[in-house]
Amino acid sequence: MRHLIDFGDMTRQEWDELYRRCSAIIDNPGAYIDACRGKVSCNLFYEPSTRTNFSFQTAMLRLGGSVFGFADPNSSSIAKGETLKDTIKMVSSYADVVVMRNPREGAAKAASLYSNVPVVNAGDGGHMHPTQTMADLTTITRLRGGVDGLSIGLCGDLKNGRTVHSLIKALEKFHGLKFYLISPRELALPEYMRAFMKERGMWNVEVTGLEAVIPQLDVLYMTRVQRERFVDPLEYKRNKGIYILNRRKLAQARKDLLILHPLPRVDEIDIDVDDDPRAVYFDQARYGMYARMALLMDLANQPRLPQQPVEIGVRPLCRNPNCITQTEHYLPPLIKQNGGVDCCAFCDRAL
Ligand code: NCD
What we know:
31% of the residues lie in helices and 15% in strands. The chain is an alpha/beta fold. The strands form three sheets. Strands 7-6-5-8-9 form a five-stranded parallel sheet, with helices on one face. The protein has a four-stranded parallel sheet with strand order 2-1-3-4, with helices on both faces. N-carbamoyl-L-aspartate binds at residues 51-52, 123, 129, 132, 162-163, 224, 226, 262-264.
């Protein structure tokens, strides 16, 4: 694996190896304090972040490497109108690995075209967030011994929640899973994710109520309604606060349920749930740091490769208003097939 843009970039075998390394780090972190000695990570956060940015930073520091970057793009030349291409060409000449979060779908894929060091997608709009998925899989595997055969409830904003999309992409690599997709109709999974599940025959049911399915679940993955992705404020108002997990609802759940949440939480889990042994979302955030250590050990130690020429585009092919190709017009017109349909290779939407 050269870049981590989408969980589909990783084979099941690569994930198993990464998980083994992550588990070894959790058991003996002191053995890895020089694993990235002399290496430098550039963290570009164009969107707010607490866990992802800090856990990437601490992961690199705990491996003996160093970190530079920004948490606010207005403090860089982006405020003067610099393109993503030029920013990436510059920072990838200073760093050994680039970690980027950006509000536009497909931004990390775009960055990877112009970088001569590995690029990690730390969240691209409402599209994907593969390193959160590494945290999620590590949590489930450490606490349940494995992922195969579990019934998993994904609850909340399945339309805009990038962590859900990445998690589904990853869970395709496991066997015997049942998915309960719990959301209001307006916030159901986007079409490209439904097509992905359908093409791979992933068992799922879509429901609007949490209480009816909670007794079935081994894992309940709660998510926040992603206010920043709504164009229509009324649509957000209609849907906010729609699912609230509380002690009463949990009384119906299995004793060994795992409650996950990528965080930040707004109101979708009552704070009195935090002390329930089934609530593992704070452990999940800590596992995320170890999973990122395992990833950085691999990527930051890869050789710098010469930059290949990239075709120059003239106008965006894709009509998704949130796609990176809408603002960075020089991007090449890349197409990929999802379920036999031509899709934008940056944001996955059907063309
Ligand atoms: C998530 C994200 O940024 O997508 N947070 C995170 O990285 N842990 C979830 C969210 O913001 O709701």
